[in-house]
Amino acid sequence: MTDSGQAPETPHRHLSTAGLLGWAVEASDGSAGKVDPCSEEVAPDHLVVDTGGTLLSKKVLLPLRFVTHTDEPNRTLYVAHTREHLKDAPRFDRDLRVTDPGYRARIDAHYAGTRSPGEPGI
Fold this sequence. Notes:
Layout: H1 17-20, E1 24-27, E2 30-35, H2 39-42, E3 46-50, E4 59-63, E5 67-71, E6 76-79, H3 83-87, H4 101-111
Parallel strand pairs: 1-6
Antiparallel strand pairs: 1-2, 2-3, 3-4, 5-6
């Protein structure tokens, strides 16, 4: 909380997880999948991305802070990662979600070393 009694501003606070369901996810090097309805289970700080494919479909967690921008008319959100980096993320586990400390540590470790858009460099 700030001195004004209001919560501090958070990145992408204006994004509604429910409003992003089904949107395309565009990585820095092309299409990475789409926002899966399971995202409602992990909101508000993460999205679940279905990386697509029939046999090789994989659902992964993506911290919302890595969304760089959205294209509302085309229902597309852009992320600051490659397709491969997203596909290599730990598989979304409905039982663990982001509340289990060990699972959360794996998610954080996967994205460690990468910065959110606009975050100052080291």
